[in-house]
Amino acid sequence: MLIIGLDIGGAYTKIATIKVQGKKMEALDISSEYFPFWKFSNQFPQLIRERLPEEEKLIGVTMTAELADCFSSKEEGVEHILNSVRSIAKTLVLNTSAKFINAEKALESPLEVAASNWIAAPLLISKYVPNALFIDVGSTTTDIIPIIDGNLSALGRNDLERLVYGELIYTGAFRTNLATIVQSIPFGDNIVPVSSEYFSITADVHLLLDHIRGKEYSCDTPDGRGKTKEDALRRISRLICADMDMLDEADVMCIANHIYKKQIEQIQKGLLSVIKRQDISRNTPVVLAGTGAHFLGEVAIKQLGYSDIRYFENLFEKCIGFSDAKISISAPAFSIAFLLAIEEMVK
Known about the structure:
Helices cover 37% and strands 21% of the residues. By secondary structure, the chain is of the alpha/beta class. It has two domains: 2-122 and 326-345, ATPase, nucleotide binding domain (Nucleotidyltransferase, domain 5, 2-Layer Sandwich), CATH 3.30.420.40; 129-314, Nucleotidyltransferase, domain 5. The strands form three sheets. A six-stranded mixed β-sheet has the order 3-2-1-4-5-6, sandwiched between helices.
C-alpha cells in the first residue's frame, strides 16, 4: 500500500510517498513543486494525476491553497482541491481539530479543513518530543507552535486567529515582498523610506547573502527576469527607487543585511509573543523545519537564548533509514504520510 501525503499550498504543491508493507515503512519520494494556484488552479487536477503513482494508494491531504485569490471564497477553494484529489483515490483530510476525516465529510464543513497544514508536523512531533517549540519557516510564512505534554497548545485554529496570537507570521524565505519587512532603511547619513512596489523579495536577499543558491530560488522573480546575484542586486536597488547606475554592490549588500536583520526581528516578535504567553523555558527543545530553518529559524531562536535545537528531518531517521532536507521543506506532506502509515501498520 502506498500512502501519499499532500500539502497543497498557494505557491507550492508538496508530495510525500511512503510504502507500507506489514509492519515496515519506506519513504519512496518527497517533492516540492512551485505551482502558483492563482495562475493555474484549473490545471491542478491534471498536475495531481500526473504526479501521483498509479498503484493502489491512500491519499492524505492538508492545504492552504484555498486562500488563493482565484477563488471567490475559501469554501470554493476547498471544494476545488478536494474534488480534484478524491477522484483519484480514497482521500482523508486533516481538519483543524487535528483529526483525519474523509473527503466527503470535509466537503460538508469546508472551513474545518481550510488552512490546516500547520497542524500536521507538530502533531507528528508530539508523539516523539512531547514538550517542544516547533518553528517552520517556509517560503512564504512562519508557523510557531508550542507542544506541551504531547498536546498542540496553539491558541489559534484558523489563520486569522493565528495571526492575532503571533503563531502565524507572514514572512518567509522566498516570496515575501521586502516592503512588508521594512518601511525605511539607513542609507549613508539618511533614513530612506522604501517604495511599496513589488520590486524585490526575500529570495533576492538570501541569494545575495549566500543563504540559498540560484537553483534553490524556486519561485517566480518579481520582474520575471533571472535568478543570478546580479539580477538580485538590481531588484533590491529598486526598493529605494534607484538602480545599479546609482548604487554599487556594497550599497545593496548593506541594504540586504539590514533587511535580513529586520526579518529575524519580525520572526522573534512572534516567538516572544508565544514564548511569554505559554511560559516556554529556555531548556525546551526547539524543532525546526522549512526552507528557512537554518538561516532564519535557528538564528532567531538562538538569539533568544534557546540552545537545544533539533531538525525535523533528523527525528525520523531510524524509522525511514535516512535524513534529508527535503523532509524538512515538505514537513506537512511528510507528516501526513507518516501519520497515516502508522495507522496502516497497526491495522
